[in-house]
Design a protein that fits this description.
The structure is a homodimer of 260-residue chains. With 260 residues, the first copy, chain A, is an alpha/beta fold. Chain A has two domains: 3-58, Orthogonal Bundle (Arc Repressor Mutant, subunit A), CATH 1.10.10; 68-251, 3-Layer(aba) Sandwich (Rossmann fold). Chain A is 38% helix and 25% strand. Chain A has ten helices and 15 strands. Chain A has helices spanning 3-17, 22-29, 33-45, 65-71, 75-86, 100-108, 122-127, 153-159, 185-196, 235-243, and strands at 20-21, 49-52, 55-58, 93-96, 115-119, 134-138, 141-144, 149-151, 164-170, 173-175, 179-182, 198-204, 216-219, 226-230, 247-251. In chain A, helix 6 links the parallel strand 4 and strand 5 (115-119). At the A-B interface, helix 7, strand 6, strand 7 and helix 8 of A face helix 1, helix 7, strand 6, strand 7 and helix 8 of B. Chain A binds a DNA duplex (30 and 30 nucleotides) through helix 3.
DNA sequence: CACGAAGTTGCACGATTATGCGTGAATGAG
DNA sequence: CTCATTCACGCATAATCGTGCAACTTCGTG
């Protein structure tokens, strides 16, 4: 029995049954519990599952803990979200991306703001229900569950009918040469379409995204008109981007943390 | 039985049935009441539920307004939702309406169901993220905030490209002569389009909707192929509908709470 | 082929965690 | 008020965990 084969089996079993019991599995495969537990430990280290006493449970990048991810937003994302929310002027039409940072924008919008928000994220749409003055345009399509956003041809087509003022884009990488990148092919297409539909594209750049590169290219760096970072980021890192004519907004923590 | 697996089960059961009885659950899972009580104590310490004498109730303190409404769904809606969920066969394409009853359908879907769900409700879409086997098609459009569903011409147009097996429709009135009615003009149009896109239209008819009439007509009663009511409803009231060839499903509260 | 490095596996040990039972206190119904 | 149920706590038992260690395989190198 190959190690990697066994690990694959563990993940498959987990997906099917929703739980792994170390003892049962060791009996079934005729290998010691130690080996199973070692596997579980390493798979957990890779974030592929979550260890619990007696076995493992799914950690599901795509599943349940999306809600959890929303609520454990880092301070950095909150700060960036607040800065982005402050940039929105009354009666503008803005596009909000999916992702945890964009949720923070929604949460920091003034409750009396009158504006139009376009989004392909049902999470954002639900978040904005309480904002009576905000008109929400929901982009439909096939739901990509990892990020909880609509993707696919119908989404692209509907985006093509919109002209917005500003698009607040979330990425997993922004790099002076590689441009804007993300981890999913479909999502990259949608982000490109959204960028094309807005006069300005502002990238929400929490520190780990700076100079990072992910597999799928959204657009060259020239598509970016602005980016928001925290004031913790060294100016040196931002120099490349500033030289390309990108407006850089440095967001700082207000003395009072004000979550919505 | 893994500890964390059991706790997850407790939370799921709580979400579905709205209450946990320690004694029943211990009997069902063949473990001591002590263990259940310990679980409840610790889950309560994490704020995930609220302890009461004999068991536990959902804790909905920090939840949003709309989220709160969802969790106070009446028993009647839960019962109807469960019956509707049970009608969905593997690999079917079903349309779920917006509204609190439809949310109950989503919550009662088996977690391993493989099917496609079409919806214009971002709430439903988010609810289904945890169902790995369910493909979600989100219908976009302008967000009508009262019901939290997408409406308008783009929604209608996108619906027109879909052919589904079954549409589970929520209404505010179902009446033998006045037909299906609801409280919003735009929403009525969308519901009509959804009905036209499905081979069968099944109305979720909680008791206060029966023989009620609202301002805007969705469709004549002939558009309905089935309806789901609770077994509390008098047969006399349903006679009109049965005579029109509508299949009536009488849902009852199960004597035994049977979590997956 | 010989050799060593790197990786994998099973076992032993003490430490940690989960479970069930007994006891007496607390709670809610009649 | 009375009584049955439910609860919380401590304790004993059993299961599970992490670590270190030795035996073994696989692979690359000379």
């Amino acid at each position: 029995m190959l190690t990697s084969h066994r690990r694959k089996l563990i993940l498959d079993t987990l997906r099917k049954t929703g739980a792994i019991v170390a003892k049962d599995l060791s009996a079934e495969l005729n290998i010691s519990e130690d080996t199973i537990r070692r596997d579980l430990r390493e798979l957990a280290a890779e974030g592929l599952l979550q260890r619990v006493h007696g076995g493992a449970m799914p950690s599901s990048p795509a599943m349940g803990n999306f809600a959890a991810r929303l609520n454990v937003a880092t301070d950095e994302k909150r700060i960036i979200g607040r800065a982005a929310a402050a940039m929105i002027r009354p009666n503008q039409v803005v596009i909000l991306d999916g992702g945890t940072t964009a949720v923070q924008i929604a949460r920091h919008l003034p409750s009396d703001l009158r504006a139009t928000v376009v989004t392909h994220s049902p999470t954002i749409a639900v978040e904005l229900v309480e904002h009576a003055g905000v008109e929400v345009i929901l982009i439909g399509g096939k739901l990509f569950k990892h990020s909880v956003v609509a993707v696919g041809a119908p989404a692209i087509e509907n985006i093509g009918r919109i002209r917005a003022d500003t698009y607040f884009m979330g990425v997993t990488g922004i790099h002076a040469e590689a441009g804007l990148t993300t981890g999913d092919f479909e999502e990259a297409h949608v982000k490109r379409a959204l960028s094309a539909a807005a006069a300005e594209t502002i990238v929400l750049a929490s520190s780990e995204k700076l100079n990072a590169v992910s597999p799928y290219v959204i657009a060259p760096i020239s598509a970016v008109t602005g980016m928001i970072v925290t004031d913790q980021v060294k100016s040196k890192i931002l120099a490349h981007f500033a030289r390309l004519g990108i407006t850089i907004t440095r967001a700082s923590a207000s003395p009072k943390t004000k979550p919505a």
